[in-house]
Amino acid sequence: MKRLFTLLVAVLALSGCGYNDFQRLDEQSKAAWSEVLNQYQRRADLIPNIVNTVKGEASFEQETLTKVIEARAKATSIQVSPETLNDPASFARFQQAQGELSSALSRLMAVSERYPTLQANQGFRDLRVQLEGTENRITVARNRYIQSIQEYNVLARSFPSNLTAKVFGYSTKPSFSVGDASQIASPPSVDFNKQ
Predict the structure, then answer these.
(1) Which of 83, 126, 78 is nearest to 100 (CA)?
(2) Looking at the predicted structure, is the pLDDT value of residue 85 above 60?
(3) At what angle do helices 62-77 and 19-55 cross, to 10 degrees?
(4) pLDDT (tens digit, 9 = 90+) per residue, 15-44?
(5) pLDDT-derived band of residue 192, with 50, 70 and 90 as boundaries?
(6) CB-based contact 179:99 (threshold 8 Å)
(7) Is the pLDDT at 171 greater than 60, yes or no?
(8) Are 105 and 65 in contact (CB under 8 A)?
(9) What confidence category does residue 109 fall into, taking pLDDT thresholds of 50, 70 and 90?
(10) Where residue 114 falls among pLDDT bands split at 50, 70, 90?
């Protein structure tokens, strides 16, 4: 009887340890991360077509194009693997490179507004719509990843599953962050008196 009781206690203790939850959430976060990478790759694949279309506009700012090309090269040169999820420094480098590419693309799109022949180009308009759709997909994929990491990190920090995390080496995972939170936190200045 004592043996059966000990076995029952052991089974109940192990069922509440969270090991299976860690496995499930770890796989879920890897899948979400893969989707983020797929969308970033989709964006990187669109860039050469956009750059070639814009190059057709003879007077277009070469510096803007160069920055987009360099940002794409940097973003695609960073090797990313599932282990990146567990390395905050690698994750930050990847995130910074993708942010620089987003910034360069935003500038390219803003500058392109000044070129009516480029705006009239159906190919450019189609590529722009595809790029905007891809940016939306990136946002959705990042949000799913953030949610999966949040669920994983809560499990890693909660009692008693935090004990399982320590025993099996499940540490918290980094999430996406904003590059300059203080700048975003301050409201923009608006002056209606300027003309």
Answers:
(1) 78
(2) yes
(3) 150
(4) 567 888 999 999 999 999 999 999 999 999
(5) very low
(6) yes
(7) yes
(8) no
(9) confident
(10) confident
pTM: 0.75
Token pair of 51 as six digits? 């750059």
Q: What values do phi and psi take at 194, rounded to 5?
A: -75, 145
* Domains in the chain: ranges and CATH: 19-154 (1.20.1440.20)
DSSP-assigned states of every residue in the chain: -HHHHHHHHHHHHHHTS-HHHHHHHHHHHHHHHHHHHHHHHHHHHHHHHHHHHHHTSTTS-HHHHHHHHHHHHHHHHS---GGGGG-HHHHHHHHHHHHHHHHHHHHHHHHHTT-HHHHH-HHHHHHHHHHHHHHHHHHHHHHHHHHHHHHHHHHHHSTTHHHHHHHHT---------TTHHHHHSPPP--TT--
- What single letter denotes the amino acid at residue 113? E
